[in-house]
Amino acid sequence: MEQRVDLDPWAAELYSGNQLPRKHKWIAPTLTDHLFFAYPAPGTKEVTVKATDRFGNRYEEKIVLG
Question: Residue 34: CB partners within 8 Å, gap ≥ 6?
Answer without folding.
Answer: none
